Amino acid sequence: MSEQPSAADEIMDGVYRALRAHGYADVTMQDIADECSKSKSLLHYHYDTKEDLLVAFLDYVITDSEARIRAHADDPPAERLAGFVGWFVFEADAVDREAFHIALLELRTQGPFNERIREQLVRSDRLLRGTVADILESGIEAGTFREVDVEETAALVVATLDGARTRQITLIGGTDEGSADSESGGEGDAPADGLPEPTYTRRVAEAALRRIVEPILAEGVALPSLEAGIDSMTRDDDAE
Amino acid sequence: MSEQPSAADEIMDGVYRALRAHGYADVTMQDIADECSKSKSLLHYHYDTKEDLLVAFLDYVITDSEARIRAHADDPPAERLAGFVGWFVFEADAVDREAFHIALLELRTQGPFNERIREQLVRSDRLLRGTVADILESGIEAGTFREVDVEETAALVVATLDGARTRQITLIGGTDEGSADSESGGEGDAPADGLPEPTYTRRVAEAALRRIVEPILAEGVALPSLEAGIDSMTRDDDAE
User: Fold this and answer.
1) I need a surface site. Which of A53, A74, B55, B203 has the fewest CB within 10 A?
2) Best to test chain B binding among A88, A101, A156, A181 (most B CBs inside 10 Å)
């Protein structure tokens, strides 16, 4: 991720690639060691178990998200909110990112059974909802947004984007993408304009901007475009 | 499910209970046989592999959902939509339903890798979005809803409710519920009125009704309550 990565960064990058390639249930310490060119015994020196390493990885991913969110803390509130929405948009060719989020979704299903994983999921949930709430609060103060129920709006926005992402990644085939795209891309109608169908996340992100964000903008405030939002949060690093 | 269940119904009920108890990754044909008091060889006579049985189970669950949706096809459109929204609400004590949906979420993570599972997921997605689109179309025709982009609204509503459910079930502890509830229930504020925090799905369902459904109601049409929606779809059978 950075130019001279630390050993810890290299290991985390190995977890990221191993999860993408093998999924959560099947990934082994050996797979991770192979992906980061470390020995398995070195990994075990730092992390007793696969669970320890995966919890450390979740911590790393969430810490990275915190830093990305912080980097945009001074953007104007409407742009910040569009950036947050755009962050969840996957294009149809984002195969690596999809594979990673499928592995994360597998990890999330362990939440009820594994307190350490659940602690990280709760932390992530607080970060995401807290970020939207913070954007809304500063935007209300700045006169960008109307007075709204900040916590309710935050829960709504986060659930909506998470649901769109889950649906997109689970409905698209990893191996036979052509056929799966045409199955899952939309409502069974070929696009009349010859453009590709928007992905599930793009369609829902567009809808969320117009149906949830636009109605809470103060009089005269323009709705930022989804494209600008996608650019601001996503383009610098596709690892999230 | 019915009073004199068929062998197939008994097996599907066994799958349901075995998935709840063991999860998707760990469940075995023996677990399922135990839960429905059949022999493992009888199960193998009907279903070659665990995958065959789980695909048949997905088919069964979706067919059941189709029937439930059909049973409400003649309800007034606004009530139907509130019923659809209410269908996703889990109360904090719905432990069996949560365990089942965690297993379903595990199954969903197999979508990219397993075409037969993915076919069922795509079918479910079409059913859910198609149902909302159908409700909206008939409601626009009946003068209940304003003219809206039906497909966009359907994708938005389904993603929102799915996301809320995923967040609720993954953030709540299966074993140490007391502590998990207080962690995941809300925004860290104790409820001022002494009532329990609403669950994630209830909070988002309330928000979806007021923020997504209410603005598309035609002039003078009253928003049905979430409680009425929950009653209409959920109470008769807690299996889905």
Assistant:
1) A74
2) A156
Angle between helices B95-108 and A95-108 (to 10 degrees): 150
CB-based contacts of B154: which residues, under 8 Å, 6+ apart?
B129, B130, B132, B133, B136
In the structure encoding, which two tokens stand for residue A115, read together? 């307190």
CB contact under 8 A, B99 and A106: no
Residue A66 lies in a domain: no
Gap between the Cα atoms of B131 and B196, Å rounded = 32
**For residue B176, is pLDDT > 50?**
no
Residue B23, both tokens:
């999860």
Number of domains composing chain A: 1
The verdict on residue B95 lying in a domain is: yes
Asked whether the beta carbons of A158 and B163 are under 8 A apart, the reply is yes
Quick count: other Cβ atoms within 10 Å of Cβ A73? 11
Q: Is residue A220 part of a domain?
A: yes
Closest in A163, A173, A212 to B211, CB measured: A212
Pairwise CA distance, residues B146 & B159, whole Å:
21
Nearest to A166 among B129, B163, B174 (CB): B163
- Render each residue's pLDDT in chain A as its tens digit; 240 residues: 456 778 889 999 999 999 999 988 889 999 999 999 999 999 999 999 999 999 999 999 999 999 999 999 999 999 999 999 999 999 888 899 999 999 999 999 999 999 999 999 999 999 999 999 999 999 999 999 999 999 999 999 999 999 999 999 999 876 444 443 444 444 344 455 667 788 999 999 999 999 999 999 999 999 999 999 999 886 555 444
Strand (E) or helix (H) holding B5: none
Q: Terminal CA-to-CA distance of chain B, rounded, Å?
A: 11
Residue of B208, B206, B204, B226 lying closest to B216 (CA atoms): B208
| Domain carrying residue A180 | 73-234
The CATH number assigned to the domain holding A103 equals 1.10.357
Whether residue A44 is contained in a domain is answered as no
